[in-house]
Amino acid sequence: MGAPAVDYRTxxxxxxxxxxxxxxxxxxxxxxxxxxxxEEIEFGRVVFALETRPDFANPLGTTHGGxxxxxxxxxxxxxxxxxxxxxxxxxxxxxxxxxIRAVPTDGRRLVATGTTIHVGRTTATAEGRVLDAEGRxxxxxxxxxxxxRGN
Length: 151
Hints:
By secondary structure, the chain is α+β, with helices and mostly antiparallel strands. It has 3 helices and 6 strands; from the N terminus they run H-H-E-E-H-E-E-E-E. The protein has helices at about 15-20, 30-35, 65-80; strands at about 35-40, 45-50, 90-100, 110-120, 125-130, 135-150.
């Protein structure tokens, strides 16, 4: 395989995320699998969106809670990533999600905003919200991430 298009060792988290999102052919990821689009990437804040679809259904026919959990985990984790220096990584240590309302699987647009609360030397925390197209709260959550040094 050829050289990677971006080098995480020399780019800050914000630079890396912006570079990856600007690529015409993005690397395969959970985002591509679920159809997640990056709408905003700023220092300490990320906005991701997706449209529900029938294969997101739980046994009751509404969007599976794991879809919102993954959307939140992605938005909050990437918000943390935007605040990291070059060469640092992170991983989710804890994820807490509160579900507020069921979401149909008929192409409803869900928008998740993740925002950092604290970014320290060894851990970081962030919060997130998922809203539907009408601006109603669907789910909200918090995360704790471990900062990985010397990757």
